[in-house]
Amino acid sequence: MRILFQDCGGNITALSKAARLFSPGYPQSYESNKFCKWIIKADGSITLRFVAIEIEESPGCEYDNIDVLVGQKQTSLGKLCGTSFNKTIQTNATTATVVFKSDESYEEKGFHLEFFADTGVTALESEEEECGDTLTDNEGNVTSPNYPYQYPENSSCWTLINVEPGRILVMRFKVIALEFDESCAFDYVEVFDGGSEDSPSMGRFCGDSQKRVLRSTSNSVLVHFRSDDLLNNRGFFLHYETNTGGIKATHEGDSENGTVATPNYPNRYPASSNCQVDLEAPLGTRVALRFDDFSLEPDENCTFDYVEVFDGLPDGWKSLGRMCGDKGEMQELLSTQTRMRLKFYSDNFSEFRGFMASYNLVTGDDEAEVDDAQTVTLPKHNLVPSSELIDEISGEETVPSDDSRILKCLPKVPGAKVT
Question: How much is the CA Rg of the chain, to the nearest whole Å?
Answer without folding.
Answer: 30
